[in-house]
Amino acid sequence: MTESATASDATPETIAGVVRDAPFIRLVARDDGDSLAAAALLAGAARGVGTPFQIRTHPDPAGSVAGAAEAAESGRTAGRDDEVHLIVGAGAAETPDPSTIAVYALDADGRPASTAAFAVGTELGVDLDPVLALAGVVAAGSVPGTDGSGDALDVATRRGIVERRPGLAVPTPETDAGLATGIAASTLFHAPYSGDPDDVRAAIGADVLADADRRRIASVVAVDVVAPPAATSRASAAVERALRPYATTGPVGTVGGYADVLDVLAREAPGTGIALALAGTGGADVGDDHDVNDDLRSAALETWRAHGTAAHAAVAGATMARYDGVSVARVSAPAATLPTVARLLNQYRSPEPITLVVDPDAGRVAAAATDPAGVGDALRHAAAELDGTGWGGPTRGGARVSIDDDGSAVIAATREAL
């Protein structure tokens, strides 16, 4: 096994060697759809070469691993001496140097983590699920075939397990009830009727009989997303990943819908998300026949529906304020939805490139940025000033803090750090 006493960003080639030689791997993924998909792909690679593994998600995977190292060093916990920690979705630079465990961070070179994880399987000669890799790419904000995902798309296309078609990327069936629910709960876009299936039916209908119906519905949604006066200039580009989806034989009907579900489950129900993502990583014909039973699929879709409905309600009810470079929204919403609310506001409603969402009652903060802006570092700094905890990366982050006002103190501290 390649030894490392400190955290290091590692290329797919290096990670392939670690996965092949490690006696045991602990995969720790950031709580988003791309990182979850990438971790599941790495788990599939480990399974393919006979390496045992454990997988979990965490909002701050690097900090979590650093905490595990400190606990092991102090003797507070007893882990395996030969285990390797592999961080997915966060760089090694975020992790203080541990001295007792080997830590690696998957280096995606600015691309979705899922593309790097898929490349690890290629290095090892392990047949990984291309549909899962493509779902991770969409969850990262990209579209299949771009940002290094061409290999996964080629494999999926050759196998006949994806097919581009008109319409919208939703995870629900194309029945009246299924499509209306899919459009209403989708977190890939925000439209005036998002969150309410009855409003969807009233606005656009939801009967799908042929490609012409799919084109009509997708066109109406694309127009309605950008039509509101409050819509951002980014909305037209952001909605693209929901249009002309890849239909698939995966756990749900479209690659984009799969991405949406994984992104929600990574925060709301990580155990369910891990099970869903791992379902297609074990067989020789991965991607052809995902081992997803009806109970798992139903649980995943119900969690996704409730999350999307709550997130859209929070977006619609947000109180917005604008500062130089930062839009601030005060909301009242379940904690797990705040990152989704921040992303939706940033893509579809925020006039500034950085969006900060604050729930004063819950003491929770989430932020999203259009481009890398040091969001995670800013929230760490702001939370530390207020005796809280912050986390995140260049474009997204979160914090738990004690808020005894309307959130003005944490807003000011975050803006100053940015």
Characteristics:
16 helices; six-stranded mixed β-sheet; 418 residues; alpha/beta; 13 strands; five-stranded parallel β-sheet; disordered N terminus; globular
Radius of gyration, in angstroms, nearest whole number: 21 Å
Shape: globular
Task: Count all strands and give the number.
Answer: 13
Low-confidence stretches: 1-6, 282-289
Largest sheet: 6 strands, mixed
Number of domains: 3
Sketch the topology as an H/E string, one letter per element: EHEHEHEEHHHEHHHHEHHHEEHEEHEEH
CATH architecture of the largest domain: Alpha-Beta Complex
Helix content: 40-55%
DSSP summary: helix tally: 16
End-to-end separation in angstroms reads 40 Å
Report a brief summary of the structure.
This is Exonuclease RecJ. With 418 residues, the chain is α/β, with parallel strands linked by helices.
Write structural notes for this entry.
The protein has 418 residues and is α/β, with parallel strands linked by helices. It has 3 domains: 1-159 and 253-311, inorganic pyrophosphatase (n-terminal core) (Alpha-Beta Complex), CATH 3.90.1640; 171-244, no CATH class; 318-417, Roll (Diaminopimelate Epimerase, Chain A, domain 1), CATH 3.10.310. It is 45% helix and 15% strand. It has helices spanning 12-21, 33-48, 61-74, 113-124, 130-139, 150-159, 176-185, 197-204, 211-226, 235-238, 255-268, 270-278, 294-317, 338-348, 375-385, 408-417, and strands spanning 8-10, 24-30, 53-58, 83-88, 102-106, 162-164, 246-248, 319-323, 326-330, 354-359, 364-369, 389-392, 396-400. The chain has a 6-stranded mixed beta sheet. Helix 2 (33-48) runs parallel beside helix 4 (113-124), helix 2 packs antiparallel against helix 5 (130-139) and helix 2 packs across helix 11. The protein is globular, with a radius of gyration of 21 Å. Residues 1-6 and 282-289 have low confidence and may be disordered. It comes from Halopenitus persicus. This is Exonuclease RecJ.
